[in-house]
Design a protein that fits this description.
Strand content: under 5%
Helix content: over 70%
Radius of gyration: 18 Å
Number of helices: 4
Amino acid sequence: MRTLCASTLIGEFFVIGFAGLVAMKDPDLSAATVWTVSGVAMLLSLALCGMVTRPGGVPLGWALQIGLIASGFVVPTMFALGAVFAGLWWASVHYGRKVDEAKARWAEQQSAAGTAEPDAA
């Protein structure tokens, strides 16, 4: 699950940065406001890469997805991109858990059979 979720979060990191550049064109927003909000969201996406398997990591990821969709009120394209990334987040969590379960079953079968996977050198 970690790899799939981290890949999604890294993609979001870049999308948030680019959305910040687009938001800079809005004359009603100051550069400090845009980059404070964008910077916090970008840092959160990076921090979540390491926290996704810890308790609370997935719910924080969902909070980031909601924030990404809500950023569409400033940059309208983000409604669509936020929805796409929310779908990718769901798929990363859902299928990542299935892969983790399959790996655990395989490891259990191997240990029950008395053979271990050879180390890849």
